[in-house]
Every structure is written in C-alpha cells, then in structure tokens.
Design a protein that fits this description.
Elements lengths: L2 H4 L20 H10 L3 H5 L3 H22 L11 H32 L2 H28 L4 H6 L7 H33 L9 H26 L6 H29 L7 H29 L5 H12 L7 E9 L5 E8 L6 H16 L4 E9 L35
Parallel strand pairs: 2-3
Antiparallel strand pairs: 1-2
Helix pairs in contact: 2-4, 4-12, 5-6, 5-9, 6-8, 6-11, 8-11, 9-10, 10-11
C-alpha cells in the first residue's frame, strides 16, 4: 500500500444511505405489551417473588414501548451533548483530584510510617495508573477508522480495553500480594522483636480526613451526574463506585492508624493487620476484574432484556416478515456486542426488497451504542440444517424437529 494511502486521515462519518424505514407499529403487538403491564395496585397484591418478576417485566415493556417513540430513522436522533459534556468534565475532574489526593497520601505516610496509610496510597496509585491505561486505550481506539489501522485490524479495536484491563488487573493483584507479604513480615517482626508504632500527628490525621471528605463529595457528585443519564455516563458511575469504596477503605485506614498509634498494649498490630486486610481486599477486587474482562474476551451474552429489545426491533423490520430463525448476541468489547440474526422472508419476495429490509434492520441495530456490528442473514425457510455446522457449539441440537412452521423466534443460541 502506498504511503499516500497509509497516512491519510480517517474519513468523516457519513450518514448511511436511505433505506425503507422499519415497519410501522403493530397495533396488536402494542396492545399485548400494554396488557402485560401490571399497575402499582396490582403489584402490591402479588407475592414477593412474583412481584419482583413482574416489576422486571414492566421495565422491559416500558423499554420496548420507548422504541415506538424513537425516530423511524435512528440516525435522526439528536445527540446527547449535554450529558456527554457533564460526564467528560466529571471524569477529568476526578482524575485531577485523585492525583492531588494520591500525593498527599504519600506525605502522610512519610510522617506516619504507617503500613495502612501506605496501602491506601498504593491503592490510589493503582487507580491512577489504571485510568492512564484506559486513557491510552481510548486514544488508540479513537483512530481505529484510519485506513492503515482498519487494514491491520478489520474488526476494530473494541477488545483492546478488556485486554488492557486484564493485563493490568493481573499485575496489580501480584503487587497487592507482595504488599501483603511485606505487611506480614512487619507483623511477625513486631511479635518477635520490639513492635514499631506508627505516628498519628495532627498533619497526618488532617490529610486522611481531607481525603475522606473529598472522596465523599466526589461520590455524591458523580452519582448525580450518572443519574441524569446520557452518553458516556457508564464510566462516571464506575468512578462514583470507586469513590465510595475509597471512603470506606480510608475510613478503615484512619481507624486502624489511630488504634495502632494511640491504643494501649498490643493495639500496634492494627497497623500491619489493617494493611493486610486492605491488600486482601485489593487482590479480591482485581481478581474479580480479571475474571470479568476474561469473560468479555471469551464472548459472553448480554442480559435477556437486551436480547428481547433486539428481537423486538427485528420483528418490526417488515410487515411481510415470516419469522426470526436465529438471534445470537455476544460481547465484542467492554460495552459492545456483535449481533447475528437470521430473518425469514417470503420466498417470492424480490431480492431488491429483501435486501432493503435487511439493510434497514442492520442500520437500526448498529445505531444502538451497545451494538458494535450487526450481521443480518436473509432466508426463505427454517427447515434447513443449522448454519456453521463446522462449529458444534453453534449447530442445531440433534433431534430437533423441523416439521413445524417457521418459528417466530427460534433461539438456537444467545
């Protein structure tokens, strides 16, 4: 490939070509959805487990009914600029404040020589480094539409984030184990020799109290920004949860420090034991993160409500739709999914009309921010042997009867 092609900028996003829009609402389907809802008075009369199930059904029905209020062409929807701007500001402000808080934690450690304060400072450092990793990943993913990058990575860089987080989680879990080892050595040395108490001076206490109060304020603020919804609020909710966890861990650290520094007798063990507990907590959290990201890389299915939403969109593809043969959804990145769907259309339909129906559905599905790619396959019957027979996990189960009419939704896989 010539350098002129390699170095050119990524093409600007263009609106997809106009295709026949989705079919208009089916009155019978809408009526069935509305009948399926149970009002508040009816919910109070239901047993607890049945009420929880029906509340989830009501939420799903509301989500499906919201589709009817969306523009017929998804690309006509107005972007949520205000929510996105608030989310970006909250993310950047949290990062900047976390840098300052991390630095003053190390100042508190220098004056206190406390293992529990050092554990809290290391935790803050991990958060900053992980934020930097995700920032670099986002910058790399932003250029995935450049021709040179697209030629090398045809499916994009959506899996770069879970790969980065997985590697980082393993490294941070190992670092936490090392800190647990150091705290254990300090505990053993104190039990076998003379114990060493940390210093809890006014400056140290003031720093930790400042960290706790600042983290609490950041938690409340990020929760409010995330609750308003809009684009890019997922990371803000994650920041809100992280600030809440920091409030808990720093409060525990302050209590352990005061106990070890001012408590009588054997209370000095609160400092190394507190650091050990924080290390165990960090190992557990990073192990959970590694498991979650590994599951994403394998290709996990989304929630059933999201699959139901996609099925509902497919049912609106055309009044002439015979049925849905296959709907398969699996993760394509941290927050995106790949959708494979097989539509059954009348065998006598013109190829041009069938193509337009499939293309319109593909555009509608890919307009969803959670859908990375949508593959729409058009068929005229459902009695054939399952697709991808070379892949046993995707083939139809043996013994399945094909004598019945084409199903509305034959869930061969998720």
């Amino acid at each position: 490939m010539s350098p002129a092609v390699d170095d050119r900028e990524a093409p600007e996003f263009q609106r997809p070509p106009a295709h026949p829009p989705h079919a208009t609402a089916n009155p019978l389907l809408l009526a069935a959805l509305r009948v399926g809802k149970v009002d508040e008075n009816g919910l109070r009369k239901l047993p607890r487990r049945v009420r929880q199930y029906q509340e989830a059904q009501n939420a799903l029905i509301d989500d499906l009914l919201d589709i009817e209020d969306a523009p017929s062409n998804p690309w006509d929807a107005a972007p949520e600029r205000d929510g996105s701007a608030r989310a970006r500001f909250a993310t950047r402000a949290s990062f900047g404040i976390n840098v300052v808080l991390c630095l003053i934690k190390y100042v508190a450690f220098i004056y206190s020589q406390s293992y529990v304060v050092l554990a809290s400072a290391v935790d803050s450092t991990m958060d900053l480094v992980s934020g930097g990793v995700l920032f670099c990943q986002a910058r790399a993913a932003a250029g995935q539409d450049r021709p040179k990058v697209r030629d090398k990575y045809p499916t994009g860089l959506s899996r770069l984030e879970p790969v980065s987080v997985l590697i980082f989680a393993v490294l941070m879990a190992a670092l936490s184990l090392q800190f647990f080892y150091e705290s254990t050595e300090a505990l053993i040395a104190g039990l076998t020799k003379s114990p060493k108490r940390p210093t809890a001076g006014p400056l140290v206490i003031a720093i930790i109290v400042t960290v706790i109060s600042t983290k609490f304020d950041l938690h409340i603020w990020c929760e409010r920004v995330a609750s308003k919804g809009g684009a890019d609020t997922g990371p803000v909710q994650a920041l809100a949860d992280d600030h809440r966890n920091d409030v808990i861990s720093n409060t525990w650290g302050l209590a352990a420090l005061l106990t070890a520094a001012m408590g009588p007798g054997a209370c000095w063990v609160a400092d190394p034991v507190g650091a050990m507990l924080i290390s165990v907590f960090l190992v557990y959290m990073w192990a959970c993160t590694a498991k979650e990201q590994g599951t994403i890389l394998v290709g996990v299915a989304p929630s059933t409500s999201f699959i139901a939403r996609l099925a509902y969109l497919a049912l609106k593809a055309s009044p002439e739709l015979v049925g849905i043969d296959t709907l398969r959804v699996y993760s394509a990145g941290a927050e995106t999914y790949t959708v494979e769907i097989d539509l059954i259309l009348p065998p006598e339909m013109l190829h041009r009309d069938a193509h337009d129906i499939g293309q319109a559905l593909q555009d509608r599905l890919e307009a969803d921010a959670a859908v990375a790619r949508a593959f729409v396959h058009l068929d005229w019957e459902a009695s054939h042997v399952g697709e991808h027979l070379g892949k046993p996990s995707l083939a139809r189960p043996r013994g399945l009867s094909y004598d019945a009419e084409a199903p509305l939704l034959d869930k061969k896989g998720t």
